[in-house]
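Reviewers of the previous submission asked for a worked example of the structure-prediction workflow described in the proposal, so we include one complete record here. The input consisted solely of the amino acid sequence. No template or homolog information was supplied to the procedure at any stage.
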Amino acid sequence: MRGGCAENQADRDFCVRGKPCIDKIREAIEGHFFYSAIENSDCYGYITEKTYDRIEFNSIPIVMRRDIYEKNPSMPPSSQIFVDDFESSEEMAVFLRSLQSNKTAYMSYFKYRERYGVDEKFNVYWDALCAQLNDPNSTLRNSKKTIPGDVSETYMKCLTPHSFEKGNYTPENFANAPHHFVVAVANAKPEDLIKYKASYPYREILSYRLKPGRDFFEVFINETAHLMPISAYKKEGDVFYPVDATFHNRLWRNSKKLECLMGHPDMKGVEPKLLPKDLEWLAAFRDLCFEKAVIPFLAKRTLLGWRRQCALLPAAGGFDLNVFDEEFPDALIADEAKLATRRLRVEHTFGKRRSGTYEVHLTSMEPAARPFEILLNPMYNGNDGYNFETMITGEGDDAVLWDLEYPWFVKNFCTAALHGHIFHVPCDPYQLILANYGPNWDDIDDYKLKNARKLGPLNDRKWQRPNV
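From that input alone, the workflow returned the following structure tokens.
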């Protein structure tokens, strides 16, 4: 401990007010794997200087609430540890110890430096504000807008951490701290909610819509629909509660519902290769991914079918899924026994896992099942501001490797309902659909991928895609 709270005089005099101290602070912090950057006030418009003023330090900051930083996207992604991702201090301590002993995982918190750099310091903007306020000709000084007498009031007089202690939650807080909630379902009546509240006095009870034939809940927060997978919950009587609090938190942050368009007529005379009930296989694999805290998302033909006509494309004989490379479920793909619990198996793997040329085909173990494949591809981050994946066509000596590039899009997912099943999709699906199928995507029957670039034959030699 350094500063005014330290026990000995030397540590109390570590920094003297009014004298430069940043080098001392940096040396002290970089001597540790982590440092506390806990805020003294929880505000959506406030991020503590303990975080932004030390972003160049070689240590990982620990902050209080994930949602505050995600609603103020001024800090690099995946660069901090959030206290509210954990159920207890013991759970967080176990995580920190494991991270400290895993160099690859630890260094992933600094991966943003390959793409981002610090351009301006915060104080530059205070200087600019002061200059404007002291300039008699400035539009800011002569505006009608109210300027607080004490600027610190804008971030000191809002929600303090104790406002979020157990028992103080309201339904409006649900999106901010979902892992503190037990959820009542089946359109619970007000009197039911009171009864459940008596059993769970420290948790907010909300009523979800749970309709037969659906594998998800639907809840409305401020008139916005959110979907959550039933598989992410345990059931206790009529009450559901999260299986994994941390992953549930992530699922909720990516739960906003997107609507499909129903704008493309059915293709009459085309015998569908897949039926809506076949989606049960894709949903089964989705749940296995959820068990590994992995979020797969719809891609290519499956994404187009959902967005354009709220259905599977009649000509599609398989399902297309992507998972970002850094969380690709390698352990699941290698676990035959686990896949078999959902009657799934790996049919083929193509390419090399870490070379940017990988593809997995899964299918059913049931002999009587309609033939289908789940085509699973890692989505990679390129070095030049774009995403890409590779695709393999053909088999054996005839296998050909293709490259598909996409404009860079934020790893921010929403949810989609497809024939009673919940799946994740990019919150801006048009970027992928336009790249895949061109500007006439809403009225085509030819599903040739416009952004597919042939790289060459896929053979036993080690393929290494550039920029991986």
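Residues 276-457 form a domain with the Beta Polymerase; domain 2 fold (CATH 3.30.460). We consider this example representative of the routine output the project will generate in years two and three.
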